[in-house]
């Protein structure tokens, strides 16, 4: 009989996809060797009491895994509900809140109500053919029983029978199964086509959209999905060969984002070691990712009896093992990214996908998932990724796989081609590869003091952090008390030159409380620990004593988070190193003080804090001289006085990473795609840095691409710019770009209007006292260009004359005329015709014609007139008349025509007496 899926959940909505993030172990809880008779068979949870109900062939017990004690024990053998020979079996346990009791179903057919306070037992029903499965609806209004006669019985919460239906039909094909879907009213809604090789596992997605099962195919085993109408809708392949494993169960977590697959090795060879696996799968962009793989032994105390997701906490998984071992794992989503802050950091983001690590290098390319820049191939499924905390080696990464082996990949020259590194979207025939991929430097096996620890708990070590070249920090939890142990993993001396190295636990420090997060500052080397109770501790890992002390705020008081934070970072805020934390409920804390309650993601980059909010904005704050009050004020409303701090983004956007020493901010949209935005605060900060370093070319290209007003190049520091005009011209080295700079010049000081600098800026904000900023720049740049290469920058020199407050058009025209008269060609020089065509783009042709006429040079006038739209029949007679006049009278006539009356009178006075 196929297992019956849990009832369809109606009250969970589908949540955002988590494509560029991984599941990271938040904390684990372990209760070994529970003192109880018999062997465990199944279990359930009491969510309000945080206790676990476990059924065995002798009865029911209630345990508290936190304090590690048995709270209740209900024997069922003495009451006659289970046989004394130990052959009895409990097939289902469910706490009923309305009844204030627990419902227990036995394989012999009894349905019992047990009051855990009074230990009173009541048999509310019995099925003669026995019961194989009991399943309650989420609202606990209905219960389904699968009987030994292959029927389904539906009852109310008062155990009144409603209907009984046959499960099977006579026309089922050989080696084929069907999926049948009933409504809540027990009406048959759909029956799928016979599916060959369909497995017994069945799991209905809580969001109600899909039903998961398994299917054996000729060369593989797939997890397949059915719609409610019985039609197949997608699949993914398990990473095993055919007949290598069998699937015991499939389980969706409460918010439908993670599918747990429970598998078991099949016996293929005698005396072979068999294992059981719990795999966690997520989906994004129609691709299924294997995020976690937990191997358990199939013999002895480590064999899995049952597992289930927590109905309240979506990413909490409960596991019960045969030797009365209970394990509880809490995961949370995290983005594994490199933390360097210099140009050598490639802004790497790594994604776990089974035995592959998909790495995207955002500095060079933005590759949409599930594609990547390159991928690392590991021998076993990957459970955790960590980048080096060394500032100059931030591209190096280490990978922890399911066999507790750490593979270290380093960037640099490799002695040979690494077969474990494969190019992704940036590779291909005919393409030149400009990317330097890492290579496998060494693999290390973690040596446990007690090998049993690894067998019982495959995730014995968590929160791995790579703090030094050959030093890792890891955290484990005590089996008997609420304490944690920080381990130093160092390379064994004998393994320094071996191909397969070994990491030993060189030292350990015990900490009171359960450590749930560990973060390291790559600059200061500080390590902060977060304990489940909220305390923040500072771990002095470099000191000989390996001391742990409370993290204190600037006032000298210990820091404490009111709620556990799933993401923690260290950053310098106002000159003090602070701990930043974000809860899964979007509450954001700095040193224990709540700064905002609508933050969806955050990232610390250099001296900036970037956050995305529920109001669909991305805010950026400079932490150099910030305070908690200023941050609270800035996040309290969506309107801020300084417009560069806030940017609207798409609903549900989350920060993936920031490219160091650049302006790119990578966001992930709810539908799974990636977008690159250039936050105005990052852009202006980076431009100011470039200008301070006299890196004019980088600043200019960025401003031109992102439409930043080019006046900022001068206005940021006028004195420095005017002193380095020649450097600016040599770096830009483009006539078109210099002309673009000229055309955007205006008298306005953009540092006072458009781009006000940070309050703490030390740059002298001053402009020319006479307000002739444009004239100063034009004169300075023209002098520099004439000194460098007047022929190459001819058009820019002409532009500098035209752009002045009072355009010097006569000088411009004279220079054009000189070009026409030049005989020998000069390299990089422009012709008079090209120069004149360019001038007509800057100046109105009629105005240019009048100014050319004012030079009294008729060759120049004719040259301008020919490029205009004027009719030769209009200007040629006029020019011919002027040519026939006496020189002074000619100039008088021209000045009178141009309404230059003072000059006209001067020329008129020079005219001789009128003859006749």
From TrEMBL:
Residues 351-656 form the ELP1 N-terminal second beta-propeller domain. It comes from the Eukaryota. GO terms for biological process: tRNA wobble base 5-methoxycarbonylmethyl-2-thiouridinylation. GO terms for cellular component: cytosol; elongator holoenzyme complex. Residues 680-882 form the ELP1 alpha-solenoid domain. SUPFAM superfamilies: Tricorn protease domain 2. It is found in: Cytoplasm. InterPro entries: A-sol_ELP1 (IPR056167), Beta-prop_ELP1_1st (IPR056164), Beta-prop_ELP1_2nd (IPR056165), Elp1 (IPR006849), WD40/YVTN_repeat-like_dom_sf (IPR015943). Residues 20-174, 176-311 form the ELP1 first N-terminal beta-propeller domain. Pathway: tRNA modification; 5-methoxycarbonylmethyl-2-thiouridine-tRNA biosynthesis. Keywords: Cytoplasm, tRNA processing. It holds the Pfam family Beta-prop_ELP1_2nd. Belongs to the ELP1/IKA1 family. This is Elongator complex protein 1. It comes from Monodon monoceros. The gene is LOC114899145.
